[in-house]
Amino acid sequence: MSQTNQTQLKAKIQKLSIMAILTALVAVLSYFGGFIKIGALASVSLTLIPVVFGSALYGPFAGAWLGAVSGAVFFTTADAVFWFSMSLPGTVITVMVKGMMAGYLAGLAYRLLQKANRYLAVLVSAVVCPVVNTGIFLLGCVLFFSDYVKTSSADQGMSMLGFMIVFFVGLNFVFELLINIIVSPAIARIVAILNKNGLIRSEKEGL
């Protein structure tokens, strides 16, 4: 085996190993994330951190995969029962699309900006991920759960948007966004170290 082939094989094994670790981490954080509470309504989810990290390391499709894993694991939690009771197809579509698109667009944002500034690229990616995740979730609420939202918002004397923000999103989005921004310098530093040591290869190179 030539030196080039050995290097490519080593890089593929390293990517598979890192992606396996990130996949397991996303699965664990997705399952137990709802148990980390701040106050009565807000919970802190750390799931998007490895999604951003993976998308920065290996691109949009790696981010989409990690987002899909997060969505799939959600279906095994107690919270999923509430959404399934309103619309099973709507829940599946909303959860999977928001996870995959959040990871994909985070990776795309990083790829577009990495040549200009790696730290800026990670920061923008860290912002894009929760924004897309929450935005598609709200859109799914309107498309698939509008009857429940209308009835509940009327009972609370609130607008539909206000009800969704207060009761469905709450402070979770704020916490996710702040945590992602806070850890983005560390992610950028790790990515820079891995890149310097030749441990990151682009998807165009077959990874």
Count of helical regions: 9
Structural domain count: 1
How would you sum up the global shape?
elongated
Q: What is the CATH architecture term?
A: Orthogonal Bundle
Topology as a string of helices (H) and strands (E): HEEHHHHHHHH
CATH class: Mainly Alpha
Q: Indicate the mean pLDDT.
A: 84
Strand content: under 5%
State the distance separating the first and last CA atoms. Answer: 19 Å
Structural class: mainly alpha
Q: Tell me about the biggest sheet?
A: 2 strands, antiparallel
How would you explain this protein's 3D organization?
The protein is mostly helical and 207 residues long. It has one domain: Arp2/3 complex 21 kDa subunit ARPC3, CATH 1.10.1760. 79% of the residues lie in helices and 2% in strands. The chain is built from 9 helices and 2 strands. Strands 1-2 form a two-stranded antiparallel ribbon. Helix 1 runs parallel beside helix 3 and helix 2 packs parallel to helix 9. The radius of gyration is 18 Å and the shape is elongated. The C terminus is likely disordered.
Which SSEs are present, and which pair or pack?
Layout (H helix, E strand, L loop, with lengths): L2 H30 L4 E2 L3 E2 L4 H11 L1 H15 L4 H8 L1 H26 L4 H27 L1 H11 L3 H10 L2 H25 L11
Antiparallel strand pairs: 1-2
Helix pairs in contact: 1-2, 1-3, 2-3, 2-5, 2-6, 2-9, 3-5, 4-5, 5-6, 6-9, 7-8
Quick synopsis:
Helices cover 79% and strands 2% of the residues. The chain is an all-alpha fold.
